[in-house]
Specification:
- The complex is a heterotrimer of chains A (466), B (157) and C (384).
- Chain A is mainly alpha-helical.
- Chain A folds into 2 domains: 6-181, no CATH class; 187-271 and 348-460, no CATH class.
- Chain A is built from 20 helices and no strands.
- Chain A has helices spanning 6-22, 27-40, 46-65, 71-108, 125-141, 150-158, 160-163, 171-179, 185-218, 224-255, 273-279, 282-293, 303-321, 325-343, 355-374, 378-388, 401-405, 408-421, 427-430, 436-455.
- In chain A, helix 9 packs across helix 20.
- Chain B is an alpha/beta fold and 157 residues long.
- Chain B has one domain (27-155).
- Chain B is 15% helix and 33% strand.
- Chain B has helices at 2-7, 9-21, 32-36, and strands at residues 40-48, 61-74, 82-88, 106-107, 117-123, 133-135, 146-155.
- Chain B has a 5-stranded mixed barrel.
- Chain C contains 16 helices and 9 strands.
- Chain C has helices at 2-32, 41-44, 49-61, 64-81, 99-106, 113-132, 145-148, 166-177, 185-194, 213-230, 252-257, 262-265, 299-302, 314-322, 338-345, 364-367; strands at 88-90, 96-98, 136-142, 181-182, 240-249, 269-278, 293-297, 327-330, 355-361.
- In chain C, a hairpin with a 5-residue loop joins strand 1 (88-90) and strand 2 (96-98).
- The termini of chain C are far apart.
- The chains are: A mainly alpha (466), B alpha/beta (157), C alpha/beta (384).
- At the A-B interface, helix 1 of A face helix 2 of B.
Chain lengths: 466, 157, 384
Amino acid sequence: MVFTSHIFLFYFLPFVLLFYYLLPKGRNLFLLVVSYIFYGWEEPWFVLLMFLATLVNFICGLFISRPGATHTERHIALVSSIIASLSLLGFFKYFVFMQNNLNSLLSLFGQEAFPVFLVSLPIGISFYTFQSLSYTIDLYRGDARPVSSFTDFACYVALFPQLIAGPIVRYSTIADQLIQREHRIDAFSSGVVLFILGFSKKILLANPMGEIADPVFAAQSPTTLDAWFGVVAYAFQIYFDFSAYSDMAIGLGRMFGFEFLQNFNAPYLADSMTDFWRRWHISLSTFLRDYLYIPLGGNRKGNLRTYFNLAIVMLLGGLWHGASWVFVVWGAYHGIWLAFERWRGKESIYHSLPHCLRILLTFIVVLISWVLFRSTDLLQAGLYLKSMAGMNGSSGGSVLLSAELYNPAHLLPFMASMILSFQPVQAFELAKSLSWWKLVLVSTLFVISVLSLIVQTFNPFLYYQF
Amino acid sequence: MKNRMTRYPSACFLLAFFFISCTGKPDSGEDPEVTSRGSIEVTAELQEIPGEFIDRSDYDYAFVMKYKVLEVHRGQLADSEYIYVGHYNPQKPRDAVSDARVDDVGGRLKKFNSGDIHRMALEMPIDDHFMGGIVNRYFDEYSGPVYWAVWTNPVSR
Amino acid sequence: MQKDRVTHFTLILFFLALIFVDAASLFTMQLLQNQTPTIFDVVTQPPSQQNLRRFENDLEDSSWLVQQLRPFVQSVRFSMLNDLGKKAVRGLDGWLFYDLDVRYLTERIDKSDAAEEEVVHSILSFRRRLSERGIQLLLVPAPGKPTIYPEELTRRATGMKAPINPWTRKIISRLESEGIQCIDLFTLFTSQKNDPQASLNPTYLIQDTHWSTHGMILAASSVASRLIDLGWTSRGTTDYIQKSISMSRLGDVLKMSKVPGIESVFKPEIVKAAQILHAADRKPYADDPASDILVLGDSFLRIYERDEPGSAGFVSHLACCLKKPLASIINDGGASTLVRQELYRKPDLLKGKKVVIWEFVERDLRFGTEGWQDIPLPEDPAKL
């Protein structure tokens, strides 16, 4: 189910809120059931898969935390949890990719290709696998207390606000809240503010930006201007889409008494790539830092190893986003930038330039990475980059793109996106207090967004595919 | 009992919700329109909706669905057990389906769900009554006559 | 503190009221109309992916709130943003284009081999089946409007030659290399546009996806000449006369936009059509199922023929050129597959045929309804 769909906004959410607050007890069980409904709405059978992943990690958790368990037993339980979770992720997310690559390799040597066994990708699998893994790892490290109830644990894994596209919530963040949480009126209203701001970002900014980016990325050979316009629009789309989802998730969490951590902090104001990754998808970058970079040795094993660790973490981070070479190259691109800036003492190559120019140059570096992220394959990415560089002469029908792109319904949200992307005030901050002017602002935004939703058909969340 | 009811307000709410909504009366689907329109009148169970309807609001078409015949009220069918019926713009409620091009179709049915029972006034063959796109996904497996749904009412048991 | 609580409560109440209003209004209205509320469909149907999607669409379609507000929102978007919705692309000087026509030209066709094979195989197979019965096939791919009038879509295209989709070119040349006869309306319409004498009379309607009467008559004449040149048919002896009719027509692109009151902003086009009448009795042209020529096609054949004023479209004008009545199957939006399925259901229509003319719009090569299936011909009535 999509947060900005008619059924979620007008049926699922009101009914879940109503019954949640009517229930005197068993609220976690209720949240678990509705989260399974929410998740199973796209493909009912995938619920079983999530349940299986939850059960395996819960049992592993029991072994890890069993009183009197030896170090070896705890280690085996942890390794089992990691193997089970990553096998699940590997099979559903990467099996087809591996088969395709194997076939390409075979054809290179003149061998006959195997028939490809197709596997559908369960939505949100990358998120819930990481979340359930964080439980067993934290337990093993002694950073979290074992959960006493399977329902509570399953509720944590499946919790619908952040289930499909994050933010990645670690077990330790909400362990206490699962047992005991406060339902305060100010927290609820702050959740409403965040939800509305996220909802408005998605409907009023991200979706129109997608209407610009999609035809340009689908074009045969866009002109240089169109190519830049398209990739900037995509940069706004992915930011407002993903940060909107995070805002809505955090807002919904607050409505049910949960507090999740901030996931975005004005990423396009970053003045270096290192700074960018402190501001973009914070829950993923901290997850990768704590569960991959530091275990790999972090920066404790010398400079060369640090650069290698940064590169490998970003490479795997890229692969986490999707089973495609474009994501691998995207991850490597970011990894190389981060390693390079680390080599320069966490400073960008353009560090000596004025702050606004550093922001602009970082944005351009990020734009190039978005070309990789958005393209269907490396060939398309290469052609698109050539178009941006004016080296891929626009031909045929692509000239006609301008009729689709440059109209008030696109230019107005484009300008608004640009202004909002390059200012520091974030929805997360705005929602901390409520005044009358904010009340009027968010109410107006909500009405406009709901009205816009009625005529919109274009409504996917980009991060659903991950 | 009273205590229990106040302790479980959501249960009471749910019960009330279901009770209010289950007040529909049995309906044979009969009305003056279905009994007078078309040359054939049947009550049939919708066996299958073959795939998604065409997702193009600018395209007017008929969509063929498979029915199991339960009762023939008027006229004669070519096949007595299963019939294939084309419905005009099936994504629309029947009372809102007629337009400038096809002005003689209608009914009380709001939406098509497989397993539902419909009372229909039909014509045959469809091509004599509808000159537009006919999406027939049974084309490969069935070559018999396709009926044209003139009037479609829901039947509730 | 008290003031804070009031603000919090106000916001929460407003939010809850807005998210509850839709379900509450639909539920109440359906109960008042003695209908089972749509919401209960979720428990009466098995929870398959298909049923859940349909349930979701049903809820939205039956929403009273959505139905009431959608026209209002469309009007506001049109008046504030000039937005005609997703189906329409605004060109210059009042020209309107259909989104699918534009997308067909602008979009890259990825990994098109399978799709290309499907189209080519389907057409070749149809030709083979026809020739087994001694029937010739003539293809008439109708160009999309932006292919012929790109400069009316955007100033950037001023002076550019017809931006024919390379995929269209590739498929047509593959078919021609297989010996299939195709009418090249791309060149005909483009040269017509570039002719200073004729350029004041566009070959397409300004607010519509279809050809103008002028373009349609050009196409019909071109097809008639080719048939005669190929020797596939000869002119008949039926005399027709033409009756001039002037009518106003609101383009289909505007109708697709569904913006309320759009006709008050865009004045309908004045279209001058020539209705074909039998010279003998002055009755409008009518098909003859026994003709030796069968015409298959989509709404390009429907316009003026079955729409207003009637008997003034492609089929009538082709009949007039050939001086004999024709048989036709017109299947709106279904020229890729549905029209041949309809032919399959009408075996008698193939009786005595020597030529089948198959018109389809260019964009259908990619977006044709139900794709390009291989459809058999009906049993030969002579063999039954």
